[in-house]
Write a structure and sequence with these properties.
about 350 residues; Rossmann fold; 2 domains; three-stranded antiparallel sheet; 11 helices; 15 strands
Length: about 350
């Protein structure tokens, strides 16, 4: 038996607690308006004479009970759970690194909405289909950087994926070789099968891409490639600081730059990496096809420990909410006649 673990089944519900300070401010403003209205009507001594049973403290006590009831209801809906039994579960999977091109040419709109966004959408769908596999993300343009280390935390993968844009790598280029090499170094030393998926238009690639793919294949790592773009190519849009399109990139001779998919290079990289190449288009991204092939690789068994036998504790909070609501109902806003004589509270 392990130490007890507490967690909320629906933690997002706890954001509702932010309503309490909002209601408190609203209540304070209402009190101020009431006080100003009474002051216009009569002076303080005359108001005390007209309203001898008026209480200053009771409304605040009722409000505190009310807020505690709201907080208890929110905690009850979030459903606190406790679990103390740790169980070892066998899972099978492979390790996958997605190497994603974020150079400016990926903003071309020959694939809707553009090459980069289509790539991110495809990776998001891929994450939804993973079961026991570990995923990592590398972004590259003129240089390569690890955006997400290898993990089974799919929620974190989606979060990091959402932050990717063309500004994330300052230098331009298409350092596919460096991205493959970085993925190779970043895999854990284990017996799990490994794969690298390169998503790029292949334009302006560095010369060592094929060599690095060959090195990966020698290490038992399959390299798959997805060509993101169409053969006819498209101009590269430019945007201002507000995200509004201002035109298209031009070269030194003021000619609009058209970026085209280097399909031959992407095919050679996949062949050298003992994988295969898929070209994306406006109807498919190619990742689904590659995932099917990756799933054919022998999956290694891993051990994972999870907490089981969670028990729901929402009843505690709902019971507390009922108690606080009853207390609020039984607490009157005004003094009773007998209380005013002994001045029990204000």
């Amino acid at each position: 038996m392990q130490n007890e673990i507490l967690k909320f089944e629906r933690p997002d519900t706890l954001y509702a607690l932010l309503l309490i300070p909002v209601l408190l401010v609203a209540y304070f403003l209402v009190l101020r308006l009431q006080k100003k209205s009474l002051q216009k009507f009569a002076d303080q001594e005359f108001i005390k004479y007209l309203m001898p049973l008026k209480s200053v403290g009771r409304p605040w006590v009722k409000l505190i009970f009310y807020f505690f009831a709201i907080a208890s209801i929110v905690f009850g809906i979030a459903n606190l759970q406790s679990g103390a039994k740790m169980e070892e579960v066998k899972r099978e999977g492979i390790d996958i690194f997605i190497a994603m091109d974020v150079s400016n040419s990926m903003l071309a709109e020959d694939i809707a909405p553009n090459r980069l966004e289509r790539s991110k959408q495809a990776i998001s769908r891929l994450i939804d289909k993973l079961e026991g596999d570990r995923i990592g993300i590398i972004v590259f343009a003129g240089k390569a950087y690890i955006q997400l280390p290898i993990t089974t935390d799919y929620a974190a993968a989606r979060l990091f994926l959402s932050t990717i844009n063309t500004d994330i790598v300052p230098s331009q280029g298409t350092a596919i070789g460096e991205a493959i090499e970085m993925a190779m170094r970043s895999f854990d030393e284990n017996e799990r099968n490994k794969a690298i998926v390169v998503i790029s238009d292949g334009e302006d690639h560095e010369e060592n891409a094929i060599k690095m793919a060959e090195e990966a294949a020698k290490a038992g790592i399959s390299v798959f490639t997805i060509g993101m773009g169409l053969a006819d190519g498209a101009p590269i849009p430019m945007y201002n600081e507000y995200g509004k399109k201002t035109g298209f990139r031009k070269d030194k001779s003021n000619t609009t730059v058209v970026t085209k998919l280097d399909e031959g290079m992407m095919q050679q990289i996949a062949q050298a990496g003992n994988g295969f190449y898929v070209r994306a288009n406006n109807t498919r991204s190619g990742l689904e096809t590659i995932l099917t092939e990756i799933n054919k690789l022998e999956k290694s068994e891993i051990d994972s420990k999870i907490y089981t036998d969670y028990e729901n504790r929402f009843q505690w909070f709902l019971a507390a909410a009922i108690i606080f609501l009853l207390a609020e109902l039984l607490t009157t806003s005004r003094k009773r006649t007998w209380e005013s004589k002994i001045n029990l509270w204000n």
